[in-house]
Write a structure and sequence with these properties.
The protein is mostly helical. The protein has one domain. It contains 9 helices and no strands. The chain has helices at 2-24, 26-43, 51-55, 57-82, 85-91, 96-126, 135-159, 164-191, 200-226. It is globular, with a radius of gyration of 18 Å.
């Protein structure tokens, strides 16, 4: 029964966040504008189809995603804390794990919506097919999950400080270094159509990172919201 309640509460929080964003479009629109600006500006540096452009494609893609995601996560959590929504949720019998997972998966939906628009434009501008290898979908999903997982937790911590715009990247980016490097290396290897053994180690690193920090985040979330 407890598991069913957690699942039901998590779905309810996801539905609430998605419906709110559908009406305001504040988070997705801000992320989308920033991500497209980064992708377009960097595409002007190199000639279309140039080898160097394709070599840095993975780095540009993930940097655009991370920095636009930082903007969206900050806005998402600020609306929860400043409006009293989070405090109201904490006063209900809802499980703390359900609250955290609901916020994580709603933010994950926003990030996937961003990539649904960003990815086709990126493929056109950089003349690289990021989906040339089916494993790229796994890399995108696992890396985005890891980023959103930690981003949701650290955005809550940062939202309680006066310098929240600065604190979120300062807290989050150092922790993200392993998964970002792994995602960039895996992406570049797939763009270059390297054999599976050249990037499978990076995929394993991403998966292990996600598992470890999922467990840590679920344990840490309760003490963080009690502060």
């Amino acid at each position: 029964m407890a598991k069913n309640n957690i699942l039901k509460d998590t779905i309810a929080i996801i539905r609430k966040d998605v419906m709110l964003e559908f009406h305001t479009r504040e988070v997705i629109s801000s992320m989308l504008v920033f991500a497209l600006l980064v992708v377009v500006v960097f595409s002007f540096i190199f000639e279309p189809g140039e080898h160097e452009q394709q070599r840095i494609a993975g780095g540009v893609y993930w940097m655009a995603l991370v920095f636009s995601g930082l903007l969206g996560l900050g806005k998402s959590m600020l609306s929860e804390t400043s409006g009293g929504n989070l405090e109201a949720l904490l006063l209900t019998p809802t499980s703390r794990n359900a609250i955290f997972l609901g916020k994580v998966f709603s933010n994950l939906i926003f990030m996937f919506a961003l990539q649904a628009v960003m990815l086709p434009l990126f493929v056109i501008l950089y003349e690289v097919n990021l989906l040339s290898d089916p494993m790229m979908l796994a890399v995108i999903a696992a890396t985005t999950y890891g980023f959103v997982l930690l981003g949701t937790l650290f955005s809550l911590i940062a939202s309680r400080t006066r310098t929240r715009e600065i604190m979120l990247p300062l807290l989050l980016l150092p922790v993200l270094v392993p998964i970002l490097l792994a995602a960039i290396q895996a992406t570049n290897a797939m763009v270059a159509m390297s054999p599976l053994e050249d990037y499978i180690k990076w995929i394993r690193l991403i998966v292990v990172f996600d598992i470890i920090f999922t467990a840590i985040s679920l344990v840490v979330f309760d003490p963080v919201v009690e502060e």
